[in-house]
Structures are given as structure tokens and as C-alpha cells.
Automatic annotation (TrEMBL), chain A:
<dbReference type="InterPro" id="IPR050107">
    <property type="entry name" value="ABC_carbohydrate_import_ATPase"/>
</dbReference>
<feature type="domain" description="ABC transporter">
    <location>
        <begin position="5"/>
        <end position="248"/>
    </location>
</feature>
<dbReference type="InterPro" id="IPR027417">
    <property type="entry name" value="P-loop_NTPase"/>
</dbReference>
<keyword id="KW-0067">ATP-binding</keyword>
<dbReference type="InterPro" id="IPR003439">
    <property type="entry name" value="ABC_transporter-like_ATP-bd"/>
</dbReference>
<dbReference type="GO" id="GO:0016887">
    <property type="term" value="F:ATP hydrolysis activity"/>
</dbReference>
<dbReference type="GO" id="GO:0005524">
    <property type="term" value="F:ATP binding"/>
</dbReference>
<dbReference type="InterPro" id="IPR003593">
    <property type="entry name" value="AAA+_ATPase"/>
</dbReference>
<protein>
    <submittedName>
        <fullName>ABC transporter related protein</fullName>
    </submittedName>
</protein>
<keyword id="KW-0547">Nucleotide-binding</keyword>
<dbReference type="Pfam" id="PF00005">
    <property type="entry name" value="ABC_tran"/>
</dbReference>
């Protein structure tokens, strides 16, 4: 499989806090990689650096083998890196169609810049087609306001938006937070579909069970560093938990017995 | 039926009928002409305020800018002998600067627009009072191109209208277009609805907000000039309290104070409503000093109605 994204020795400090010490990782085509770690381990900092929220202090980012610099969310999107943040990806007062194309609105009379009129027909058609393709057309109308949707539906919309722009890398930040059981399974099914469609997925989550259900590889972070990298087939829940906390849980368990 | 601007419109019609029945002169050409002369001055500011509120910010300095801009322009013309065109340009630049300072402090330093524009209100009003020493400027009675452009008048039958009405209509159409049909409107609503989501999609939220602050300031200055030309005088205390009346017009029309949901049509209805109340209450004989009681009660009633309608919509 071809390499899609490579991070080499990324470093980022906030004042005296070294949020990211020396992070390197590689993401291949059609692969789901889970990024795990306790609160404050540096997961958020890492994905924010990749998605262009703030610049890194040091280190290199390669997209399909080419060295790039990512200085804004716009640049990350243009490189094919789509990030879906927990709860914050959609504007609730806008329609589904307007959300799907937010920041990339189809317009007529392009020379008018930000004053260019939206191509409303194209907007609605494309949104309907997209909703149909991802299998939620029966329930959702492209003109419905996002505020009328459930958490799972919102997450589905955000994910379909990322898939629609044929993103090479899709970063999911806690995608199943605050979701019901059924909605969670819907999102996990989406993740599998993304992999089948050839997208690479970086999944940030606290739920290790989900990781074993969908991920191919696991990367564990602790105190701003990547401390372990394992394929899901070669590891188990207890080992991963030990890696996250830094304590040897299996040894503890044995001693307890 | 559930849309806020529609319920506001119904209330407006009810108010107009009540006033018309209570006093035969309410719908007379003279009184309608009178209302239409005042309407654009606050209405034009309300258009800018609607866009700004939709993006999640508001501006308390508009009333002060309404006062300062004409004072500066007239001082330049009368005391410094500057050409009126150049003076107006200077006034425009001043408004742009005030709006830009508001916007930059709010977005780049991250202080709430309430505090920033409240301070700006004091600075701008204080400046107007200081440079005039508190006195209104001597009257301005030289007709010319700019006076005709901003405050000329014309008759249609028994009605007498000011050109400011054209300004209001034109700017309203532009604002409706921007908010509902242009790419920029999509950005403005998205920023007010969920700023982080908009930024994550590459929308330049700070830049959009700064330009909206500038637009609002410029519109306030324009309204101040229109008013000053119409009454041929510039007073340093003109526009006192306008900021709250303008915000009332906007929220009565159905725009959310918290951002994300804005309606220009609603704002026009709101502007007409407050104008009609102010005018009608006096005609039907309510004492002038009791005016604010009525305005307050009606605004509160409108807001309760909007809240109930929204709750209802959420339940269905």
C-alpha cells in the first residue's frame, strides 16, 4: 500500500509546555489508524498541527511523499486532509446543503468574489445526490436545518462531507462522543466504508472497543510522544490500556491473582 | 407561519390597523411622509447591525458615530474651509477607522464586542462633544450635489419623500442579497452559528467580522450625514440612544441576538414597527414621557412571541 501521509519529528510547544515532543507516524492508503492516549497526551495537538489550526515549531510533513507546509485549515483541505472535530463541525443554523459546501460554495459569476451568488440549484442537487449515495436520503432533506438533526445524523453529514471532497486523509476526533449505541454503530460502519473507498482514516477516540472493531493499526501517545505502534491483530485490550496509562497492567493483574 | 419575520409582520399590520382606527390622521399623506422621512435614518444602521448580529457580534457605538461623522464633516467645511466632497471623504475614512478598530480588537485580542463597542461609544461621543465644545454647529444651508444626493426631497401626489428612502431601499435589497443569496451570507450565518466549524472549513471569520464592523460604522455615519443634511444642522449629541433602538429593531424582526439566524426582511419590519409605534403613540394621545413604557412592553412581547414560536418549532 502506498504511503499517504508521513509526519517526521513534529514538535510543538505552548510557552514552557512541550505538547508535542518528537512525533513521527505514517499513514497508508486505505488504512484506519487509531490514535490513542490519555487526556493531555498530545493527540489534539498532533491533529491540530496536521489540520492547519496552528503551525508546528519543528519537523516535516509529507503528503504522498511530497514535503508540504500547512499554515491554515484551508491549506490542509486543499492537500486532501479533512478533519471532523467533535461536535464542532457543522453550523446548526444552516441547512444540510449549505453545510456540506461551507467554504467551497458553488457560485455563479465567480468574479464577484465573496459577493458572488450561490448556485442554489447546484447546491441542492449535489447535496441530495450525496445524501443518497451515503444512504441517508430517505430520512433527510437537503434543505433541513442541521439544528433539527440528531447527533448521529450530524456526524454522518460531517463524515459524508469529508468523503465527498475525496479527501486522502480523514481525521476523526472523538466521532462517537455523545452518540447513542445505534448511532455509534452507524459511524463505525462509515469508517469501514471510508477504508473500502480508499481513504486513509486517523481515528482519535477514548473508546478502545471501537478501536478493535474498525482499526488496522494502533498508535499510542503519552506526554507528547508516540510510545507504541502495533497492528490490531498483534495486540489485545489489556496491552493497549497498559500502553496508554504507562503502567504495566498485565503484571499488576498477575500479581493480584 | 412559524418564521419570525412573518409573525413580526402580522404584529406590524395589527399595530397599523389599531393606530389607523384610533386616529384618522395616522394614515394621512402628511403623517406617512413624516414617518418615511425618519425611517431610513435608523433603518440604514439596522441593516448593518443585522449582518453583524448574524455573525455573532454587535456594535454599541453606532449612535455615537451617527453624531460624530456629521460634526467632523461640518467642522471641516465651516471652520477649515475644506471642500464638502473632501470633507465627506474624510468622514467616510473616520467611520472606516472606527469600525476597523472595533473589529480588530474584538477578533484579534478577543474581547467581547459588548465591552469594546461600549468603550468606543464613550470615546466617539466624547470626541464629538470635545471638538464642538458641546455646542451644535451653526446651520448648514448650502444646497448642492451631496445634499440632494443624501437628503433631497420629491413629491409623489400628496406624499413628500426624501432621497434617503431610496438609499434605504437600495441598501435593503443589497443586504437581502448578501445575506440570503451570496457566498458571503453563507459565511456570515455560519460564523455566527458555529465559529469553529466555519473556521475549520477555511472561512476567514476574523476578516469577515472586521469588514462587518466597518460596514456598520460606515452605515451609521451615512445615516448621521443624511439626518444632518435633512435638518441642516449637526449636533454632537445626535443619535444618543440609537444603538439600543437599532438593536431592538433587529431582534424584534426575528434576528437572533446570539448569532446564526438573521433576517433583513424582519429588520425592515422591525424598523417600520418601532417607527409606527413612536409616531402612533403620540397621535393617539399617549403622553410623550410614557412613550418608552409602550416601546419596552411591545419589544418584550415580540421577543416572548419569537421564543415561544421557536420552542414550538423545536418540539415538532
Amino acid at each position: 500500500m502506498q504511503e499517504v501521509l508521513r509526519l517526521q519529528n513534529l514538535q510543538k510547544s505552548f510557552g514552557s509546555v512541550r505538547a508535542l515532543k518528537n512525533a513521527s507516524l505514517t499513514l497508508k492508503e486505505g488504512e484506519v489508524v487509531a490514535l490513542l492516549g490519555d487526556n493531555g497526551a498530545g493527540k489534539s495537538t498532533l491533529i491540530k498541527a496536521i489540520s492547519g489550526v496552528f503551525p508546528i515549531d519543528r519537523g516535516d510533513i509529507y503528503v504522498r511523499g511530497e514535503k508540504v507546509s500547512i499554515r491554515s485549515t484551508r491549506e490542509a483541505m486543499d492537500l486532501g486532509i479533512e478533519t471532523i472535530h467533535q461536535d464542532t463541525s457543522l453550523a446548526p443554523d444552516l441547512s444540510i446543503a449549505r453545510n456540506l459546501f461551507l467554504g467551497r460554495e458553488p457560485v455563479n459569476l465567480k468574479w464577484l468574489g465573496v459577493f458572488a451568488p450561490l448556485d442554489l440549484a447546484k447546491l441542492r442537487d449535489a447535496a441530495s445526490a450525496l445524501l443518497k449515495r451515503v444512504g441517508i436520503s430517505k430520512k433527510l432533506d437537503a434543505d433541513a436545518l442541521v439544528s433539527t438533526l440528531s447527533g448521529g445524523e450530524r456526524q454522518s453529514i460531517a463524515i459524508s462531507r469529508a468523503m465527498q471532497f475525496a479527501a486522502k486523509v480523514i481525521i476523526l476526533d472523538e466521532p462517537t462522543n455523545n452518540l447513542g449505541v445505534e448511532e455509534t454503530h452507524g459511524v463505525l460502519r462509515f469508517v469501514k466504508e471510508m477504508r473500502e473507498a480508499g481513504h486513509s482514516v486517523l481515528l482519535i477516540t477514548h473508546n478502545i472497543h471501537h478501536v478493535f472493531e474498525v482499526a488496522d493499526r494502533i498508535i499510542v501517545m503519552r506526554r507528547g510522544e508516540i510510545v507504541a505502534e502495533q497492528t490490531v491483530a498483534d495486540t489485545d485490550l489489556l496491552t493497549v490500556e497498559s500502553l496508554i496509562t504507562g503502567a504495566d497492567l498485565s503484571a499488576l493483574m498477575k500479581r493480584a491473582q | 407561519m412559524r418564521s419570525p419575520q412573518f409573525s413580526s409582520f402580522v404584529i406590524l399590520v395589527v399595530l397599523l390597523v389599531v393606530f389607523a382606527v384610533a386616529d384618522g390622521n395616522f394614515l394621512s399623506p402628511l403623517n406617512i411622509s413624516n414617518m418615511m422621512a425618519f425611517l431610513p435614518e435608523l433603518g440604514i444602521i439596522a441593516l448593518g447591525m443585522t449582518l453583524l448580529l448574524t455573525a455573532g457580534e454587535f456594535d454599541l457605538s453606532v449612535g455615537a458615530v451617527f453624531g460624530l461623522a456629521p460634526v467632523v464633516v461640518m467642522l471641516l467645511v465651516q471652520n477649515a474651509g475644506v471642500d464638502i466632497g473632501v470633507a465627506l471623504l474624510a468622514g467616510l475614512l473616520l467611520c472606516i477607522a472606527i469600525g476597523a478598530i472595533n473589529g480588530v480588537i474584538v477578533t484579534k485580542i478577543g474581547i467581547s464586542s459588548f465591552l469594546v463597542t461600549l468603550s468606543m461609544l464613550l470615546i466617539v461621543r466624547g470626541a464629538a462633544l470635545y471638538i464642538t465644545q458641546g455646542f451644535p454647529l451653526k446651520s448648514w444651508d448650502q444646497p448642492g450635489f451631496f445634499v440632494t444626493l443624501l437628503a433631497g426631497s420629491f413629491n409623489i401626489g400628496a406624499f413628500r419623500f426624501y432621497t434617503s428612502l431610496w438609499w434605504f431601499i437600495g441598501l435593503s435589497l443589497l443586504a437581502v442579497y448578501v445575506l440570503r443569496y451570496a457566498k458571503l451570507g453563507n459565511w456570515i450565518s455560519a460564523i455566527g452559528s458555529n465559529r469553529n466549524a466555519a473556521v475549520a472549513r477555511g472561512v476567514p471569520a476574523d476578516t469577515v467580522k472586521i469588514w462587518l464592523f466597518i460596514a456598520t460604522s460606515v452605515l451609521a455615519g451615512l445615516a448621521g450625514m443624511i439626518s444632518a443634511f435633512r435638518i441642516s444642522a449637526a449636533s454632537p449629541v445626535a443619535g444618543t440612544g440609537y444603538e439600543l433602538e437599532v438593536i431592538a429593531m433587529v431582534v424584534v424582526g426575528g434576528t437572533a441576538l446570539t448569532g446564526g439566524r438573521g433576517t433583513i426582511l424582519g429588520t425592515i419590519v422591525g424598523a417600520l414597527m418601532l417607527r409606527a409605534i413612536r409616531n402612533g403613540i403620540v397621535l393617539v394621545g399617549v403622553p410623550g414621557l410614557a412613550y418608552n413604557i409602550f416601546v419596552g412592553v411591545i419589544i418584550l412581547a415580540m421577543l416572548i412571541l419569537h421564543a415561544l414560536l421557536q420552542k414550538n418549532a423545536a418540539r415538532n
